[in-house]
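QUALITY CONTROL LOG
STEP: pairwise intake check
CHECKER ROLE: data steward
CRITERIA: each record must contain a sequence immediately followed by its structure tokens, with no blank fields

ENTRY 1 OF 2
RESULT FIELD BELOW
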Amino acid sequence: MSKPRPVMIAETRAKLLAAARHAFGTVGYAQSSMDDFTADAGLTRGALYHHFGDKKGLLQAVIEELDAEMTARLHSAASRAPTRWEAFVDECVAYIQMALEPEIQRIMFRDGPAVLGDISQWPSTKGCIAALSRSLSHLKADGAIVDVDEEATARLINGASSHAALWIANSEEPQETSKRAVEAFRALLERLKKPDGDAAEARATISTGS
């Protein structure tokens, strides 16, 4: 019995994504061949063009998949923090540190910007800024941070974390660069805190149970 068409379409797309992700993550975008993708997936070039348009479209799809996985991991890291402020810092720092991982480093922070352009203009950036803005709003309500323009601050934090990740990914000494970037980033975030922010947030956490 043949599989339903939607299932076959999903399987074809998944095979091409997996083959491309492996190639992009190991040899890089420039050295990857569309013929290699299709051969590894057991498919034709026509299938690739149908689902992704071209090689650039395939890279975009791989980045979207990788970005969704990174977001899930960041949320998981934040969920383990004892306070909302620590969750916020841990999530931001974890994003920067992901630039040390070979696959993320190559696809997201080297080939991605080189092929798709400025990372600040990617569609996913808008969602990141919105999420940061919401977090800052909650922290203000808790009394954990000073009164700031949430959107402006979110854009600055997003820009700083993205630039830090790019710096790490393109550094000749990524481990050392990551250490320096994280230390400086934590110091910047600390300037947002109210002097009594920890106590205020602790009271808010107890009262809300969150």
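ENTRY 2 OF 2
RESULT FIELD BELOW
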Amino acid sequence: MQAVMNPKYPGLSVRVADEGFDAYVWGNDFSFEVSVYGAPELGRSVDQWAVEQVPAYRKCYGIDPEEFASYRDAADSAVFMAYLDDRAVGHIVVSTNWNGFAHVDELAVVVPARRHGVAKALLDVAQFWSRKKNLPGMMLETQNNNLGACRLYERCGYVLGGIDHLRYRGIDPQTSEVAIFWYRLFKSELERT
């Protein structure tokens, strides 16, 4: 796949991950600050969710590039990297899920590159990949402590498809972290036109 340029951010491009992927992951900070937990509700926009203030802390998921090594050369998955002025600043891992949807296994943007259209550009490329494979849509998971990501998915046309209050209880029985499943359905777009 050729580099995809973003006219709103001229220095931003997305291309297939290369041999520099591992070093890029190990050398960057993908953490984010958590200060609220949202209470997701089906049928309500993210900005309408009740929120609970919590003492601020940094959240990091501990990205391991080895986890996705086999995704780079497989027919049913891909890894794309975003570059801002030729510096690697984000990545997305997408695969074909068991239910036929494209599954965004991971989406991350380095701290200083946020708010530059990087995550949206990566989602757009993953959507192009998914449509090219004639998949019915895309799905992904985030959590109620990452409302910025939830707002992004909502702006990009994703809808809330499910909420799992127990998913993370095995890790921490006292957690307030809730899994939120988002879907972008392509067929419904075609039916509206």
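INTAKE CHECK: passed for both entries
DESCRIPTIVE NOTE, ENTRY 2: Helices lie at 21-26, 118-132, 147-155, 186-192.
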